[in-house]
Design a protein that fits this description.
Elements: H1 3-16, E1 24-26, H2 33-45, H3 49-52, H4 61-77, H5 85-92, H6 95-110, E2 114-116, H7 119-131, E3 139-143, H8 150-157, E4 161-163, H9 173-191
Helix pairs in contact: 1-6, 2-4, 2-5, 2-7, 5-7, 6-7, 7-8
């Protein structure tokens, strides 16, 4: 994407967020987007296609080799912009990834918590982390997927997954499951009595 197309996609995601949201679950759907995600991860955190590319929807060994080669060619072609997180995202990602970045940015500005789904979503917002170490302080990783690079990317982003269920699909399926965990934690926090309220002797509130 050129700068105008990238900024338009980011703005689309930014404007899509309702200020009335209590929580945003980010997910994606599509074919080929784990290739773009792996390319962005490699550009931001080093390595090549062999390090970051996984089997996605289940490609065979030849398919995986083609995927790795495509990532390496993309990194070589756009080597001059890889030092800039946003330029790298524009060169290697797609409009859907840019829109995810925009929504995460809007949520940060509006102080709305975010649940990130799998590898693709984490790669989409990774440029924000490279720009500012606190840029994802409002975000949680919903789960650790079985896609090859996801755990490494979570480590780079400093995120611990809430769930680890060997899930592969994106589409916010992991984020949706994690909502139940967040609701349970919130109910526990709100409903928990203090020591004094529970008449526990020898303990202060």
């Amino acid at each position: 994407m050129d700068e105008a197309a990238f900024l338009a996609a980011v703005a689309t995601g930014y404007d899509a967020l309702s200020p009335d949201c209590d929580l945003v679950c980010l997910g994606e759907m599509g074919i080929g987007n784990t290739t773009a995600a792996a390319a962005i991860a490699a550009a931001l955190f080093g390595g090549d296609g062999a390090r970051w590319a996984g089997r996605g929807t289940g490609v065979d060994d030849l398919g995986l080799a083609r995927k790795q080669a495509a990532i390496d060619k993309a990194l070589l072609r756009h080597a001059s912009v890889l030092g800039d997180p946003l330029l790298a995202a524009a060169a290697l990602g797609g409009r859907e990834l840019a829109a995810i970045l925009g929504t995460a940015l809007a949520a940060r500005y509006r102080r709305i918590p975010v649940l990130l789904d799998g590898f693709v979503c984490c790669a989409a917002v990774a440029p924000l982390k490279k720009l500012n170490t606190d840029a994802l302080s409002h975000a949680l990783a919903a789960h650790a997927s079985v896609e090859a690079g996801h755990r490494m990317l979570l480590d780079e982003l400093g995120l611990r997954p809430l769930l680890d269920l060997d899930m592969r699909l994106g589409e916010a399926s992991g984020a949706t499951l994690a909502v139940l965990l967040l609701r349970a934690a919130l109910a526990c926090h709100i409903g928990m009595a203090t020591f004094s309220q529970a008449n526990v002797s020898g303990k202060s509130a």
